């Protein structure tokens, strides 16, 4: 058999049976990222659990009460609860009586997001599905008495084109098996074998998510967590092997080094192009991922701030995962809903510059501040966070040529322009009445037919 015949046969074999990935980082890292994720750009994160009952400080409430003993949390419990009250006593109050998965799906669809990542289990260990590995510490046994993950997965997959994803914490603050493994300097793996890995396989096989967003990895290596074995199966033999994407939080050695897309740290904004696809996981509430009853208005990012973060993220080639925290009753607070719908309204006008875009040769302008660039096909998009104060918008990065055209997305007609000396463009801004301005925040100029830049 000739070498060419062998290669042809191998290509056919892979196309029929699919690529196989070994439980090594070299093999796992070689897996191409499914295209849908890079094209999507915007996802919605949802942090919901027993921590939504006390709903002060953050989703780390339990650890800050009995672990690090944060004064705000310790004093809150001392002043409002009986001395023998336990964290488990909060669970029956996680009622979710107003949780309507179809309503949530409609809201997420209106945001313009193309994927959601729902917290199936946070570091408290409470599972939002009837896991066979959580005993009575799950949403079917105590609290809502419902399969929260199942209901949301069905609503998202049935009523929207959004990709459904799940967050899962590898570790649990106070689980005795984990604490025992930790005491043994992670030379034992009882917690991983009996709890973490069975949960992950159960989630994938039951709900078939397109995203597995791992967390809680930082105290031990990926070898302890058996992450490479799981990812090898996920990419090779799982029911979502062709569509699933994962992040990088699979062990203290893997974050920002191995896995799928990189998150590196919360609210990650590197400020420059990255060699690997990355994601900015961030919160509308600046101080918490879970809902806080006592959060003042000043702690919520404005729509303008959200869009500025989103636009910068996309300009540098990243995705943004924007977090909301529902109440214990299952409602998404109106301020979160307003932000989601505002972003969706903006994308209705400017989505052409965002979805399926890629970074341009320049990410921000060299003359006018707060201007960010994206590119799709041969068109370049200049996204302005501030509307021009005069009759001219000067941009230093684009290089024009005969036939270059300038349009404002959401506004009819071409804009007049002239080339700047050497490089750049001066765009004439005509008087536009308030009711003709295409959106309230961040305006996009589409530049077509620019000179090729190398």
Structural class, from secondary structure content? alpha/beta
The overall pLDDT average reads: 95
Count of structural domains = 2
Give the neighbour order of strands across the main sheet.
5-4-3-2-1-7-6
CATH superfamily of the largest domain: Glycosidases
Principal-axes shape call:
globular
CATH architecture of the largest domain: Alpha-Beta Barrel
Looking at the structure, the CATH topology of the largest domain is TIM Barrel
Elements, N to C (H/E): HHHEHHHEHEHHEHHEEHEHEEEEEEE
Low-pLDDT parts are 1-16
Percentage of β-strand residues: 15-25%
Alpha-carbon distance between the termini? Answer: 44 Å
For the biggest sheet, the summary is: 7 strands, parallel
* CATH class category label of the largest domain: Alpha Beta
List the total number of helices.
13
E-strand count: 14
* Proportion in helices: 25-40%
How big is the Rg? 24 Å
Question: Can you offer a commentary on this structure?
Answer:
By secondary structure, the protein is of the alpha/beta class. The protein is 30% helix and 15% strand. It folds into two domains: 20-353, Glycosidases (TIM Barrel), CATH 3.20.20; 371-448, Immunoglobulin-like (Sandwich). The protein has a seven-stranded parallel beta sheet with strand order 5-4-3-2-1-7-6. A four-stranded antiparallel beta sheet has the order 8-9-14-11. The chain has a three-stranded antiparallel beta sheet with strand order 10-13-12, with no helix packed on it. 44% of the residues are buried. The model is unreliable at 1-16 (pLDDT under 50).
């Amino acid at each position: 058999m000739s070498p060419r015949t062998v290669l042809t046969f191998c290509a056919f074999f892979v196309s029929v049976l699919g690529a196989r990935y070994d439980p090594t980082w070299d093999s796992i890292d070689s897996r191409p990222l499914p295209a849908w994720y890079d094209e999507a750009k915007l996802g919605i994160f949802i942090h919901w659990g027993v921590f939504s009952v006390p709903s002060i400080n953050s989703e780390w409430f339990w650890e800050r009460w009995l672990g690090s003993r944060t004064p705000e949390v310790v004093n809150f419990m001392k002043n409002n609860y009986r001395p023998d009250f336990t964290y488990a006593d909060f669970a029956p109050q996680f009622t979710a009586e107003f949780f309507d998965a179809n309503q949530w799906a409609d809201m997420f669809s209106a945001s313009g997001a193309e994927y959601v990542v729902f917290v199936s289990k946070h570091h408290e260990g409470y599972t939002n599905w009837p896991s066979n590995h959580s005993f009575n510490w799950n949403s079917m046994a105590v609290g809502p008495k419902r399969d929260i993950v199942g209901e949301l997965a069905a609503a998202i997959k049935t009523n929207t084109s959004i990709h459904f994803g799940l967050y899962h914490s590898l570790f649990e603050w106070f689980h005795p098996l984990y604490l025992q493994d930790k005491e043994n300097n992670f030379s034992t793996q009882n917690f991983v074998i009996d709890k973490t890995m069975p949960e992950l396989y159960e989630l994938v096989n039951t709900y078939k998510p397109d995203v597995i967003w791992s967390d809680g990895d930082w105290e031990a290596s990926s070898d302890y967590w058996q992450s490479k074995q799981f990812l090898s199966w996920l990419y090779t033999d799982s029911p979502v092997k062709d569509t699933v994407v994962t992040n990088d939080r699979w062990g203290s050695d893997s974050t920002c080094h191995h896995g799928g897309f990189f998150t590196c740290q919360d609210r990650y904004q590197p400020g420059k192009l990255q060699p690997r696809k990355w994601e900015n996981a961030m919160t509308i509430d600046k101080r918490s991922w879970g809902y806080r009853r006592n959060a003042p208005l000043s702690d919520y990012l404005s729509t303008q701030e959200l869009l500025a973060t989103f636009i910068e993220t996309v300009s540098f080639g990243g995705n943004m995962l924007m977090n909301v925290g529902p109440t214990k009753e299952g409602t998404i607070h109106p301020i979160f809903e307003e932000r989601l719908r505002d972003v969706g309204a903006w994308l209705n006008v400017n989505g052409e510059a965002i979805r399926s875009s890629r970074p341009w040769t320049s990410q921000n302008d060299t003359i006018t501040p707060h201007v960010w660039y994206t590119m799709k096909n041969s068109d370049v998009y200049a996204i302005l966070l501030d509307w021009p104060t005069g009759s001219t918008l000067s941009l230093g990065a684009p290089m024009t040529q005969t036939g270059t055209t300038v349009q404002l997305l959401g506004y009819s007609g071409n804009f007049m322009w002239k080339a700047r000396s050497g490089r750049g463009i001066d765009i004439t801004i005509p008087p536009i009445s308030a009711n003709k301005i295409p959106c309230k925040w961040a305006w996009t100029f589409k530049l077509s037919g620019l000179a090729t830049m190398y």
